[in-house]
Design brief:
Blueprint: H1 6-12, E1 16-17, E2 30-36, H2 44-49, H3 53-60, H4 65-86, E3 95-97, E4 103-105, E5 111-118, E6 121-128, E7 132-138, H5 145-152, H6 155-162, H7 169-186, E8 198-201, E9 209-213, E10 223-227, E11 234-241
Antiparallel strand pairs: 1-2, 2-6, 3-4, 5-6, 7-11, 8-9, 10-11
Bound molecules: coenzyme A.
Amino acid sequence: MAVLPPGASRLLARVQPVAAAPGTLLPVGVEVWHLDLNACADLQSEARDLLDDADRRAADRFTRPASRIRQQLTHAALRCLLARHLGTQPGLLRFQVGPHGKPELDPKRDLRFSLSHSGTDALVALAWGREVGVDLERIRPRRSLEQLAMTCFSPVELAAWLAVPAADRLRGFYRFWACKEALIKAWALGLAAGLQRFDVALAPQTAPQLARADVPAAPPGDWVLRELQGPAGYAAALAVQQLGSP
Ligand SMILES: CC(C)(COP(=O)(O)OP(=O)(O)OC[C@H]1O[C@@H](n2cnc3c(N)ncnc32)[C@H](O)[C@@H]1OP(=O)(O)O)[C@@H](O)C(=O)NCCC(=O)NCCS
C-alpha cells in the first residue's frame, strides 16, 4: 500500500462521509464523500501539487480564481480518494473522457466514480464494479421555476411536482433535479440522455425510484437511486447500477 503524501492526508482528513437519507442505506461497496471547499481554502497549493499537468491546465482555464480553486480542490480530493483505494499516488492516476464528457480512470478499473460541485461544496461518489452518478444542487430560488420544470421534467414528474404543497415546491424541484442528474451521470450520457425520456418517482419515507426509462443509449440494468444527507441547503442524490446487472 503506497504511503500518501502529507498534502493528501491533510485533504483526506477534511472530507466527510455522506449517508443516505434517513430510512435508507447506501448500497454495498458505495462511498460518498463531502468536501466543504471553504473549509479547505488553506490547502489550495497542496491540492494543486496533487494534480497532474492535465488537471492543472484544466483548472487554469477558469478565469475566476474561486472556480479555479474549486476545480483544484475537488479534483485533488477525487485523486486522493481513488489513490487510497487503489494503493497508488494521487498524481500518478490518469483519466480519459467519454463521448459525453464523463471522466473515467485510464486504464479503466473496477473502481468507478462521479463528482459534483455546487456553490461552495462538492461530492465524490465511489463504487466498486458498477456505474455511479452523483449530483449536488444548492437550493436557490429561481424566477421561472415552472418553466424550467417543464423543460427538465417528464409529464409524469411535472404532475407529481405540481402536486407538492407550495411551501415544499422549491426543495421538491431540486430533489427531482438531483435524482435526474445522478441518473444521467451514472449513464455517462449527460443531457444526451433526454430528460423527458425517463421518470423519477419521489414519495415520502421511501427511496426514489426510476419508474420508467426509454433511453436507448443508457447502459442496461436496474438502477438504484438514493437521496443523500448532503450539506444543509442542498439537494443531493446518487444513482448506481444494481449489482449483477448485465
Ligand atoms: C455533466 C452534467 C450532467 C452535469 O453538470 P453540472 O450539474 O453542471 O455539474 P456537476 O458539478 O454536477 O458535474 C460536473 C462533473 O460531472 C462529470 N461529468 C461531465 N460530463 C459527464 C457526463 N456526461 N456523465 C457523467 N458525468 C459527467 C465531470 O466530472 C464534471 O466535473 P469536472 O468537469 O470538474 O470533471 C451536464 O450534462 C449538464 O450540463 N447538465 C445540465 C443540467 C440540467 O439542465 N439539468 C436538468 C436536470 S432536471
